[in-house]
Amino acid sequence: MQTDLKEKIELRESVLHDVAEILISALHLKIQAVDLDPDTPLFGTGLGLDSVDSVVFIVELESRFNITISEAEGRRALRTVNSIIDLVISKKQDNG
Amino acid sequence: MAEHELNKGYWAIRNSVAFEDDADLHCLLIQGREAFKVLDQVCPCNVFLQNGQMKHTLLLDETAVPFADVYVCRNREDAYLLGYWSSSVELVDWITRHQGALTEYSITDLNESHGFLTLNGPYAWELCANALGTAILGMPYLSVMPLKPGMVFRAGITGEYGYHLMVPAEHKDEWTGILTSAGKSFDLEVTGSADRAQCSLENFFFDLNREGQYGLTPPELQLQWRLSRQKTAYPGSGAMQELREKGWDRRVTCFITKNPVRVNDEVFYENDPVGQVLSAGYSPLRKEYVGKALIRKPFWHAGLNCFQVNCQVLETISTPVIDNRSIHVNFNLDSYFTREENEDGAV
Question: Quick check: A82 and B302 CB within 8 A?
Fold first, then answer.
């Protein structure tokens, strides 16, 4: 496997791990990290988060990854675990 | 012919409202003192719901492979099993075989007496409110409400507002007339299962007739959220337990590609096969093909554009693959008639 692909995969796995930790520790979801499939929906169905959870989730993501997420960015990205991972990776890349 | 003309039903689901006489949807009414207990016995999640709630889950065979894609619903003391499965007779027989000592319940197949009319689209709520009354506006996603006569289920598999109206068979034509007539001012289109299936694919909903045909388990299908980790005894629980201990090495992953692909086409990384296409369809909105492939570990992540299918580039992508207009439509502020001003609502 080429190095850049290996790095991309490792980055996604690491962000997924951290996002799972936030969901379990800050939002008290009764799941284990291995149960969290990356395309799981966050709201309504899926993990069943609500609007209060979304505020806590954004604050925790900003703190954990040292990024800032605007309201519009949050609204577009808060769909699935994977869409959050995309946002975090893109923000981290922007930050250099 | 313009693209909008070719895909009228699809665009109505995505931009206005689409009506479907939904022959694929099944519904069983389960009544009696032990109605929810028997559902608890067969479902892999907690089914003791509040009045008016629905929960999306799966029914699994002994090898933990889903054979029914269901919502458990509660209206007062009655339970409804709504969803997609192949035979209601077989499902009732399966429930009976797994009932254990629970006998104080009865099951009625409502498809014998009722029809299903489905509305999908970012303005389905507005049409429903006009045609059925403003009480519809108080229905959260995954809720059920009695309709006189019948029931309304707020669910859907397109990523847009969705309402399933279950009406007595003798009133179906009347309701079809009411909805399609009221829908004219919302640019309603009559649609079918193909448009619904394409929208469902773009929003990564599970389809029993596509990826459900490959004998895959919930973790491989990315459907673990439909199960409860706390629950340990249900049909298929032994196989799920074993799978969780052993782990799994492949996962259904969404992809996009510019060229047509067929089901069962192989996916390659460099010259090594790493997966297989399970479903695919052209997305008029993205102007490219969207699909699901079963990709093996560690290649099973989204955001990788290093794959080939039929010597063309295949890129894995996070779901949903579109920004649904319904997410941006707030029914306190927006209406179909003000949609042009609602710039955030543009898909």
Answer: yes
Which one of A12, A19, A76, A82 would you mutate to disrupt binding with B, by most B Cβ within 10 Å of its Cβ? A82
Between CA B288 and CA A56, with CA A88 as vertex, the angle to 5 degrees is 120
pTM: 0.95
| Strands across the sheet containing B143-146 | B143-146, B151-154, B162-168, B114-120, B18-21, B189-190
Q: In what order do the strands lie in the sheet with B66-75?
A: B54-60, B66-75, B78-85, B26-31, B106-109
Task: Please compute the mean of the pLDDT values over residues B180-206 and round it to a whole number.
Answer: 97
Task: Say which amino acid occupies B286.
Answer: R
- What digits encode the pLDDT tens for the residues B313-339? 999 999 999 999 998 898 888 999 988
CA B267 to CA B269: how far, in whole Å? 7
Kind and range of the H or E element at B90?
A: helix B88-97
CA distance B225 to chain A (A): 6
Running DSSP on this structure, what letter comes out for residue A78? B
User: How far is it, in rounded angstroms, from Cα B230 to Cα B72?
Assistant: 18
> Would the CB atoms of B269 and A1 count as touching at under 8 Å?
yes
Question: What is the rounded average pLDDT of the residues B128-135?
Answer: 95
